[in-house]
């Protein structure tokens, strides 16, 4: 069965960087891309970016351009999301999701990131 | 890219039907048929319930249906059940980025 397992919770200081991992299993890794979506406390879902697990090309939301990088390691079937220059309003649950023809059909369990001094 | 507009909340009694609207523009909902809907219970990851405007993934009951007209998509839940109480989000492809709706809380009275 398709599974996306994310790395554990993180606490970061303002200005630091964050790297969250998402390990895929149960399907052909290179057949579907992976998107990252975040959800601030009490807020809605926000799409951050996408990576093709086949060719490695990426696409980011304008809001995060220059601050986010999504990468992949095909040998370990893992996708990474790095967010730099963290601010308190980056406190959120970060999800990875399999992106199949612009549909998020399977989701990771979420990674809680807290940014506080 | 602005978020798609959804009503903040809708409610209904068990067995009734409720509809949730999702309004965008010709650059997102109106321009593509890649509209999806997600159900999210508190503290859980979202779950896909509708894709490509009106298609249901395996295992999602046919009480959930989707449609689109112009720049507005809609999700209808028929035969409302207690477990349908959750937050619902629409999402649309927008030419490269994807954009979510603001979210709707469904309350079962």
Estimate the strand proportion of chain B: 35-45%
What is the mean predicted local confidence, pLDDT of chain B? 96
Rg for CA atoms of chain B? 13 Å
Number of strands of chain B: 9
> Oligomer, anyone?
heterodimer
Shape of chain B: globular
Q: Would you list the SSEs of chain B in sequence order as H and E?
A: EEEEEEEEE
Q: Proportion of β residues of chain A?
A: over 45%
End-to-end CA span of chain B: 35 Å
What does this structure look like?
The complex is a heterodimer of chains A (117) and B (109). Helices cover 0% and strands 54% of the residues of chain A. Chain A has 117 residues and is mostly beta strands. The radius of gyration of chain A is 13 Å and the shape is globular. The model of chain A has no long low-confidence stretch (mean pLDDT 97). Chain B is globular, with a radius of gyration of 13 Å. Chain B has 109 residues and is mainly beta. Chain B contains no helices and 9 strands. In chain B, strands 1, 3, 4, 7, 8 and 9 form a 6-stranded mixed beta sheet that branches. Chain B has strands spanning 9-12, 18-23, 35-40, 47-50, 64-69, 72-77, 86-93, 98-100, 104-108. The model of chain B has no long low-confidence stretch (mean pLDDT 96). The interface between A and B is medium-sized, with 22 and 25 residues.
Give a short overview.
Chain A is mostly beta strands and 117 residues long. Chain A has strands spanning 3-6, 10-12, 18-25, 33-39, 45-51, 58-60, 68-73, 78-83, 92-100, 103-107, 111-115.
List keywords for this structure.
heterodimer, A: 117 residues, mainly beta, 7-stranded mixed beta sheet, 4-stranded antiparallel beta sheet, 11 strands, 0% helix, 54% strand, B: 109 residues, 6-stranded mixed beta sheet, 3-stranded antiparallel beta sheet
């Amino acid at each position: 069965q398709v599974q996306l397992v994310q790395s554990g919770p993180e606490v970061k200081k303002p200005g630091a960087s964050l790297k969250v991992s998402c390990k895929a299993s149960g399907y052909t890794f290179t057949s579907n891309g992976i998107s990252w979506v975040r959800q601030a406390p009490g807020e809605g879902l926000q799409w951050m970016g996408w990576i093709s697990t086949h060719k490695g090309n990426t696409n980011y939301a304008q809001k995060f351009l220059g601050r986010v990088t999504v990468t992949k390691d095909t040998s370990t079937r893992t996708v990474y999301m790095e967010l730099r220059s963290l601010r308190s309003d980056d406190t959120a649950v970060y999800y990875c999701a399999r992106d199949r023809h612009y549909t998020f059909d399977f989701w990771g369990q979420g990674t809680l990131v807290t940014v506080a001094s | 890219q602005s978020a798609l507009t959804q009503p903040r909340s809708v409610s209904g009694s068990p067995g009734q039907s409720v509809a949730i609207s999702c309004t965008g523009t010709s650059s997102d909902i109106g321009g593509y048929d890649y509209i999806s809907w997600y159900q999210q219970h508190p503290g859980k990851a979202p779950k896909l319930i509708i894709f490509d405007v009106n298609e249901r993934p395996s295992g999602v009951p046919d009480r959930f249906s989707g449609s689109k007209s112009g720049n507005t998509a809609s999700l209808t839940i028929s035969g409302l059940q207690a477990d349908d109480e959750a937050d619902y989000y629409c999402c649309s492809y927008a030419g490269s980025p994807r954009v979510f709706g603001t979210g709707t809380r469904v309350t079962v009275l």
